[in-house]
Amino acid sequence: MNRGLILPSAGVCLILIAFAAFRGPQDLADVDARMTVAADDSTGKASSAPTLVGRQVCRECHAENFALHAQHGHASTFHLVSQTDLAETFDGQSFDAGEPYGTYHYHAEGEGRLSVSLPERFEQDRFPLQYALGSGHHAQTMLTLTTAVDGQTEGIEHRVTCYSDGRLALTPGHANKTPHDALEYFGDSSRGEPLQRCIYCHTTSAKIVGETIVDLVSSINCEKCHGPGSEHVRAARLNPTSPPPYSVGEPSWDTESEFQLCGDCHRLPRSISEKEIRDYPKLLARFQPVGLLRSRCYLESDRQLKCTTCHNPHQTIHAIERSEHEQHCITCHQPEVAEHVACPVSPTTGCIECHMPAVELDEGLQFHDHYIRVHEPTLRSSQAGG
After folding, report:
1. InterPro entries recorded for this chain (predicted)?
2. I need a labelling partner for 368 at 20 to 30 A (CA). Which of 32, 176, 280, 312 fits?
3. By the 8 A CB rule, do 89 and 160 touch?
4. Residue 78, SS3?
């Protein structure tokens, strides 16, 4: 899509241009089926390099983790808008984004497709909304790939997001923005490595080619974290009673390996400015490894505390009771153990609220602060009350 085409004087309908050019990826089930064939071990020969086999193949031996993962936010981080109910949710709605944008109007285009218009600025021209990022546990934000006038692929993160309670509101981080050109009236622009990283962290496999995504395996599935599984599957099928160790089961896997894996998308200090690390603004609550790595719980555990110390990576946090999380804290902070440091205020309950409180960010989004520490005002208040 050429940026010039969305100027009001052009009189060109955006939705027709983009949808005519858009070539959707295979349905995920078809991709899994294709990958299953690639994992065929009938010859017993290893391929030159491991390839993706698809989560349905992993299910053969890992049914319990497969079922848990299906309820996890990782299982639904990236979709075509047409594969969601967003067209139904947005259709006929309008959202006043204020100056300098105006009021967005949303239109279902059939077959689950969705577009948005800004009639105050661009008359009846419509802008297509192609991809939905986010599981919906917090929110879903839409992204469209376009071609800039210099021929480079550009991603437009839409200005409006659908939150988990069904309301429409500004996308996090989009307040007080100024559009630099016509397309940015519809959302923030990114290209190159930032755009690729955005899609990388929401998919198992994806490659941007022009205005489309090829080799797409949507969302964060088994092989995003464990790596391509064809060789593991081949070896396991040849010796089903003693399958080989794989990925996190390898002897070389350690705490640092885990931080590098999780932090690849959930962020590590190297992707945060020195000033932010020093000042620790509340936005960093979104980037859990950054906080955890500066916590005394990590530093005084011989740097052995890691994400999976407290989290089952296959299980959604929404299925875990607060008391279960507190048991992880108490394991290392038992009042009756002399070597442990127990909380003087409440040694067996209330750990999360006091030491990992929920931090509210844009539009009511909340993330628990993983910089585990004593919050002095909270401690003084609790002591005064008790």
Report:
1. Cyt_c-552/4 (IPR023155), Multihaem_cyt_sf (IPR036280), Multiheme_Cytochr_ET (IPR051829)
2. 176
3. no
4. strand
